[in-house]
Amino acid sequence: MSGTAALIQEVQSAGLYVFDVILALSTAQKIMIVVALPFLYSIVWQLLYSLRNDRVPLVFYWIPWLGSAIPYGMQPYEFFAQCQQKYGDCFSFLLLGKVMTVYLGPKGHEFILNAKLNDVSAEEAYTHLTTPVFGKGVIYDCPNWKLMEQKKFAKVALTKDSFIKYVPLIREEVLNYVNSDSQFRGNKGKVNVLKSQPEITIFTASRTLLGEEVRNMLNTGFAKLYSDLDKGFTPINFVFPNLPLPSYKRRDEAHNIISSTYMKLINKRKQENDIQDRDLVDALMKNSTYKDGTAMTEREIANLLIGVLMGGQHTSASTSSWFLLHLGERPDLQEELYNEIKSVLGDRKEVTYEDLQHLPLVNNTIKETLRLHMPLHSIFRKVMNPLQVPDSKMIVPKGHYVLVSPGFAMTNEKYFPNANTFEPHRWDVSQNAGSSDSDTVDYGFGTISKGVSSPYLPFGGGRHRCIGEQFAYTQLGTILVTFIQTFKWTSKLPKVDYSSMVTLPEEPAEIEWERRAE
Ligand code: X2N
Ligand code: HEM
């Protein structure tokens, strides 16, 4: 007891001494100390951390809190490759105050995408990003079992029968766009794909998933609200989900008006007893009661519509932008696509869902675009219970995050020879071969593959796997076919902007187009 008391005394007097010394310093010196202290602390902390053999190796950084944000935020795949050389497939880095543990390659895909529900949480990782935009009660603002059911509810509007109806609508929207937008005036010209593709995506997705009423509202001032909401769906939300700035206020106002508008639409259909099988709105009106007997409220249905549309919007617009830019460098592929389409459709121009199933080069063009440009370069989970890295003594503690990057494996020579070359034909031979694991699992939204150790996972895997894959292929396939039928184009491939929500081309992202002779 007295030993401890003496020690406390000792520390106290040492502390007082240091305090006296600091007080005696000049103001400039004091400021220097205050500035240097966080750096000193961070370096000592990293030193002690590196001595622990129960921790994943941590990438060294100079700037406290910021950590490795700049190299990661600017070139994540290059950053991962450098870390992999030093530390192997599993390493940690600091990102804006959060410790992120990365596990690269198929083993990492399995470790993170198939981690147990109790050990990792997607909602804890994403809710700051998504809830201010989508609204309350859905996606990552509810327990996981509700998300699993929301995915099941939404999937009803994402079946083959729906896609058969959607394809002509998507084609009509694309034709309407390329025949009336000012960037497509005349017989040749230049178009910024970062403007055209988001517009084509929202028109086609709204027309099919939300119905004609909402689609028509996009020709009015309503479109500005979409743009305001969209500007609020940015990675800045991970750090600052709410700030007293005009853009945040516009986001919240846009959210309220859009969700109220969807609720009005739901109510109108209810009152007129006009509930059919047209779109996602109908599907959710018919089927949105959880297995515990509680029904989703109209507000929640509206928010789910916002979320699903918003997710599909960014991923799909990025993908079509990239395939246009890649094909612009490959006129030979455009001709091959043109001939493939001609050989299946003959003199017919109106592509159908069935046709899309018989156009392997169209589908492989999308598949190859997703390989090179997986829209989400990083997938996160928050660690809720200490998590052991398989076959090691290393533990990822509660409160840290895990990060999986299938896009890294998808652009790696180890898995894809000539990884950086855009070559849709690389998929010609091994159509679905290779994924030998036929083991499946159902988390509540339909059966999916149990294993996630493929290096190619653009739609993720496990309980959070995408439900939009078939819709995306249908939408993107119809857009691609319609472009090939209408235009020839050239372009120069831009660099990648990794700091947006999805991996986008940097500006200028233009194609020079020319209408095909009839
Ligand atoms: C400060 C450069 O820029 O150094 F949407 F119904 C709806 C989305 C997950 C994005 C991760 C990190 C960027 C750091 C920049 C729905 C369709 C979904 C699925 C650092 C200096 C939402 C993480 C963005 C990392 C970029 C999560 C999406 N299908 N959509 N420093 O989505 O699914 C949905 C699901 C994510 C990200 C990043 C930095 C269902 C910097 C400079 C600066 N990213 N990002 N979805 N960074 N710097 C979605 C899953 C969910
Ligand atoms: C989940 C990719 C289009 C709806 C995911 C995930 C990925 C992904 C990687 C898993 C995220 C994670 O594990 O954290 C893509 C790509 C798309 C696309 C590459 C297009 C090319 C769509 C579309 C929709 C959609 C069109 C809706 C119609 C969803 C939903 C989830 C999801 C609801 C589930 C989220 C969860 O369970 O946590 N997507 N997506 N996606 N996606 Fe997509």
From TrEMBL:
Keyword Coiled coil: no
Metabolic or biological pathway: Steroid biosynthesis; zymosterol biosynthesis; zymosterol from lanosterol: step 1/6
Domain of life according to the entry: Eukaryota
GO annotation terms (biological process): ergosterol biosynthetic process; methylation
Catalytic reaction(s) noted: a 14alpha-methyl steroid + reduced [NADPH--hemoprotein reductase] + O2 = a 14alpha-hydroxymethyl steroid + oxidized [NADPH--hemoprotein reductase] + H2O + H(+); 32-hydroxylanosterol + reduced [NADPH--hemoprotein reductase] + O2 = 32-oxolanosterol + oxidized [NADPH--hemoprotein reductase] + 2 H2O + H(+); 32-oxolanosterol + reduced [NADPH--hemoprotein reductase] + O2 = 4,4-dimethyl-5alpha-cholesta-8,14,24-trien-3beta-ol + formate + oxidized [NADPH--hemoprotein reductase] + H2O + 2 H(+); a 14alpha-formyl steroid + reduced [NADPH--hemoprotein reductase] + O2 = a Delta(14) steroid + formate + oxidized [NADPH--hemoprotein reductase] + H2O + 2 H(+)
GO terms assigned for molecular function: heme binding; iron ion binding; methyltransferase activity; sterol 14-demethylase activity
Enzyme Commission code(s) on record: 1.14.14.154
Key words, A-Z: Heme, Iron, Membrane, Metal-binding, Monooxygenase, Oxidoreductase, Transmembrane, Transmembrane helix
Binding sites annotated in the UniProt record for heme: 466
Cofactor(s) this protein requires: heme
Name the record gives this protein: Lanosterol 14-alpha demethylase
Organism: Ogataea parapolymorpha (strain ATCC 26012 / BCRC 20466 / JCM 22074 / NRRL Y-7560 / DL-1)
